[in-house]
Amino acid sequence: MKVGIDMGTAGGGTVSGGAAAMLDLEELLATRLLVQGNSGSGKSHLLRRLLEQSAQWVQQCIIDPEGDFVTLADTFGHVVVDGARTEAELTRIAARIRQHRVSVVLNLEGLDVEQQMRCAAAFLGGMFDADRDYWYPVLVVVDEAQLFAPAVGGEVSDEARKLSLGAMTNLMCRGRKRGLAGVIATQRLAKLAKNVAAEASNFLMGRTFLDIDMARAADLLGMERRQAEMFRDLQRGHFVALGPALSRRPLPLKIGAVETSARSGSPKLMPLPDAPEDARDLIFTPGPQEVRTVVRRAPVAPPPPSTAEILAQLTRAKPEPEAPVEPLFPGIVEAERESLIEKVMREIIEDPEASFRSVAVLYQDFLVRCRIHRVPGEPLALPAFRRKLALAQTNLDGETAAGKTWQEALNLSESLTDDVQGVFLIVAQAAVTGAPCPSDAMLARAYGTHSTSRARRLLTYFEERGLLVVRTDFTGKRVVAFPDLGCETGPGDPNAPDEMAEERAAAE
Q: Region (Disordered) spans which residues (predicted)?
């Protein structure tokens, strides 16, 4: 079904007859949109026009760093999601949004930049990893996209930047097959990651003053560099459009009026009030509810060392390191260390939020808990932690864990990469103990994802490696056999729900 969205007047309001500038909504869902313009060019007004005109036709999700779009809730029924939540909460909320097809505004106002990046990454990741049954079309609008997909690293941590940039790349590069249509708006094209901007096929370019941004805008529109000067002359609310959903040739247009308004607008000049006679007293006399703060001045930095002092430090002989003191009973210390590590691993596994956290996040949690419990010795490296995490997830009793069959299963798992060993050992545990084959939902939780299709692909991968054989009995239940171990799981329903996830959802 072709749906035309009236974005305003073609020709920037100069065409006789006022021809409407129509945007093909169905084409936009397949080809994505990039909006660029300096502050005050009318980007937010353009996005608001697009959202209002398409609200009745398609589900919408707005990543709103400034809280400008929360007013859509009063008129169009959008649900406002406060970003001041844990990343796990935002991921689960995003999955429910796709399931129930509710339009939302993710309000990130009041959070610092790094928190905004982490929240947006978790939210977009939850929408991206939704089950295939819920891949309905969604218009995902990201305002100030240069914050979430920066071209270079800034003051935020590398981990937050990689999470946010990865989520934005998934949205623009792989989101179309999952029904996610990205609409990103930025003040500076030069600050936006090129691999994110390059995936858009539709463009709306507004007023721009910097040469580097004008040059990139002209390149994206297929214009010559000398024509880029026109972007400096555009008025507020005027844009140049190009793309299969808008126009096959660069088309000036003027954005039409909107029904709702932002909570904050452009500053307006106001006359100053008459100066009160006691102005000095008003300024220098503290009020009754004010708390006087003491200004502490930073100490003066010492002068830098001279060249002679630096050379003397470099030529000075280094003292011999002291030999580490060997414990009197090393076996007892090592046993205590292993006991404390096992205790920390149990705490992590028993945490209901741990199932869908990445291994990197769990590893940081593990290091913190080790310091709290004063675990002696060097901390475990990441590969060793992955291995212990996989073993802890199986939760075997001591007799079974010491058996020959389970030791052979451990040897087989060492041929796999660290990230999939946990899933393999959970299936092997069911075979060794004769338990029913785990469902796709249980395997997905063990892998740290909500996607059951990934769990099925892992079983296929194990089967291709010759580690196991998957078959279905006459009742449609799945059985996994391990030829090298001489055992197989009991019949299990692959579509059964994950009981642990349901218990956690019921508790919430």
A: 487-508
